[in-house]
C-alpha cells in the first residue's frame, strides 16, 4: 500500500474530482466508477453540495488557513485485489488517519473503481471540529511509515516500486515518464558509471536528455530535469533517488576513494568540496579547486571572513590559508593553515563534515598568538603541539588548591 498526499484550497473542486462529477450520466446521476464507502460529520442529504457545505462549515472556523483541504489517495497492489473489500479498506483508511493525526474532523472515503488495482481517496478538513489545524509537519515521512506498518499488519503485497509497471499499457506523458525512469534506473545499476559525463552519455544513448537548473542569476547548480520526446520532468517527478544530489552520491560510490584520504579518489583526482564555514561554493570555485587551484572564499563565519582553499597533494587534504598560496613569491611555509570545516559535495559519497579547531568556530586569541610564533605548521600539528605544551605547563604548576 502506498499513500499520496496533496493539499488544496477548494473543497468543491476536490469533492467533484473524487466523485467524478465530469462523468455524471446525462440524467445527472453519478457514474459507476466510484462509491462512497465511509464518511463522518458530513451531510449526505443534498449529495455533493451537502458534503461540500459540511467541509466549508469547518473552514469558517479558521478562514485564514492557506490549504484547508486534505486529500490522500491510498493505493493497493493489484495482487491484493482479493484481500481488500469495502470493510477492509475502510478499516485500513481509518487506522491510517489515526496514525497521521487526522481525527475529529469531517471526512469522506471514496473507492475508485476505474483501475485494475484497489485504491481509495480520503478527503478531509485540515481544520478540525475544535478549530485546530491538523498538522502536516513531516507528513511525507509519516505517510511512508504508516503505509509500511499497515501493509505488514494486513499481509499486503510490498511492491518493488516502478520497476513492476507495464509501460506498454501506459499512454502519453505517463508512458514517457516511466520510459525515463527505466532508462535512468538502468544506468543507476551499472557500477561502471562513476562520472556525470558517463551518466549523461548513457542516458543520451537511451533517448533521455538532462537539463541543469541553476540558482537565479548565479552559476550555482540546484537541480536537474530529465527530457524525452519533447517532455521535461523534474528529477523528483521521476524518482526521488534520481535527484542531482542522490545521483552524485551514487556515482561517487561507484568511484572508490583513495585508501589514505577521503579527499581524493583512487585514481588520484580530487574530490570536490561544496562549502566552507557557511559559504556555499559556486560551480566555478568547485571546478578551480578540483583543478588544483587556490580559490578565494568570502563571508566565512568566525575570525577569518576571507580565506583561500587549496588541495595539498603531499598531505592529500584541503588546506585553508589566510593568504593566497598561489601568488608568486608566496611561501607555503609562511601561510598559516587555519584548519578545515569543509563539506564535500554529494559526489563525495559522504555527508560528514571535516571539523577544524573549535568545530570551525572562533580561534582563541592565545592559540592564534602561539601559531604566529610557529609558522609553517598545519592546524593538526599546531594543535597537537599547543595542547602538549599546555599539559606540560599544568603539570609544572601542580594541582589546583581550593
Automatic annotation (TrEMBL):
Pfam families: Relaxase. Residues 329-352 are annotated as: Disordered. Residues 46-156 form the MobA/VirD2-like nuclease domain. It comes from the Bacteria. This is MobA/VirD2-like nuclease domain-containing protein.
Amino acid at each position: 500500500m502506498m499513500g499520496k498526499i496533496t493539499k488544496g484550497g477548494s473543497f468543491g473542486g476536490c469533492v467533484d474530482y473524487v466523485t467524478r462529477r465530469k462523468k455524471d450520466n446525462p440524467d445527472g446521476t453519478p457514474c459507476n466508477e466510484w462509491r462512497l464507502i465511509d464518511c463522518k460529520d458530513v451531510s449526505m442529504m443534498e449529495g455533493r453540495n451537502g458534503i461540500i457545505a459540511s467541509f466549508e462549515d469547518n473552514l469558517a472556523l479558521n478562514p485564514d488557513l492557506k490549504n484547508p483541504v486534505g486529500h490522500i489517495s491510498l493505493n493497493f497492489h493489484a495482487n491484493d485485489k482479493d484481500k481488500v473489500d469495502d470493510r477492509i479498506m475502510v478499516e485500513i483508511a481509518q487506522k491510517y488517519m489515526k496514525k497521521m493525526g487526522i481525527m475529529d474532523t469531517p471526512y469522506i472515503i471514496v473507492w475508485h473503481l476505474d483501475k485494475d488495482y484497489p485504491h481509495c481517496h480520503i478527503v478531509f478538513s485540515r481544520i478540525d471540529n475544535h478549530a485546530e489545524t491538523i498538522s502536516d509537519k513531516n507528513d511525507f515521512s509519516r505517510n511512508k511509515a504508516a503505509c509500511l506498518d499497515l501493509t505488514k499488519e494486513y499481509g499486503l503485497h510490498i511492491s518493488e516500486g516502478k520497476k513492476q509497471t507495464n509501460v506498454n499499457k501506459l499512454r502519453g506523458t505517463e508512458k514517457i515518464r516511466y520510459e525515463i525512469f527505466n532508462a535512468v534506473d538502468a544506468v543507476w545499476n551499472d557500477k561502471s558509471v562513476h562520472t556525470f559525463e558517463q551518466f549523461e552519455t548513457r542516458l543520451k544513448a537511451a533517448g533521455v536528455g538532462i537539463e541543469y537548473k541553476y540558482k537565479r542569476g548565479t552559476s550555482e547548480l540546484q537541480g536537474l530535469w530529465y527530457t524525452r520526446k519533447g517532455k521535461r520532468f523534474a528529477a523528483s517527478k521521476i524518482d526521488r533517488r534520481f535527484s542531482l544530489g542522490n545521483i552524485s552520491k551514487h556515482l561517487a560510490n561507484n568511484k572508490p576513494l583513495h585508501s589514505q584520504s577521503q579527499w581524493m579518489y583512487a585514481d588520484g583526482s580530487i574530490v570536490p568540496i561544496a562549502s566552507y564555514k557557511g559559504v556555499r561554493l559556486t560551480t566555478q570555485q568547485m571546478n578551480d579547486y578540483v583543478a588544483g587551484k587556490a580559490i578565494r572564499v568570502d563571508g566565512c563565519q568566525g575570525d577569518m571572513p576571507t580565506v583561500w582553499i587549496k588541495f595539498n597533494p603531499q598531505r592529500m587534504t584541503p588546506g585553508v590559508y589566510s593568504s593566497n598560496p598561489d601568488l608568486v613569491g608566496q611561501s607555503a611555509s609562511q601561510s598559516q593553515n587555519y584548519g578545515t570545516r569543509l563539506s564535500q559535495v554529494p559526489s563525495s559519497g559522504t555527508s560528514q563534515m571535516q571539523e577544524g579547531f573549535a568545530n570551525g568556530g572562533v580561534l582563541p586569541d592565545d592559540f592564534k598568538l602561539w601559531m604566529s610564533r610557529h609558522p609553517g605548521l598545519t592546524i593538526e600539528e599546531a594543535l597537537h603541539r599547543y595542547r602538549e605544551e599546555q599539559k606540560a605547563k599544568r603539570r609544572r604548576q601542580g594541582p589546583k588548591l581550593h
